[in-house]
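# nightly structure sweep
# worker-07 picked up a monomer target from the shared queue
# config: single-sequence mode, recycle default, output format = structure tokens
# input follows
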Amino acid sequence: MARLRSIRRPLRRFAQVGAGRRALVAEAVAYLLLARLALIFVPFPRLARRLGAFVSPAEARAAQASAQLAQDHVRIAEEVGWAVTRSARYVPFKAVCLPQAMAARVMLKRRGVASVMHFGAAKGKEKPLDAHAWLDAAGVEVTGYPVAEGFAEIGCFV
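# output follows
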């Protein structure tokens, strides 16, 4: 009974958003699931080839792809970021930074919006190294923000 009460509020809120946002949330859930499954079953080097070109964070292509573009791209990036981060809270599996960045990247690409997926690392407290992924597009911080202090960007996919 308590479990039913805990999902009632999110379901009620979901019903209150417009049909366009509901469709975006459903798409985000589907891509989060696909990203999670890909991370489990596909070797990362093979997966990385599908994510784009891996470049240094200082490379001009990285700055160009994340620069602010047309106003409609900004709106799309904001909406996709909203849908992915909200959906990640409620899916019945762990949808941390990397699956979120992957899902949002695919959703943005389908809409013709360029994005940059950043990878960083920091000295870990419980393990030797902590890693983090974050995504930006059209000057918008889409997923994975704010980036915790101490993370150094290693590279990015453009």
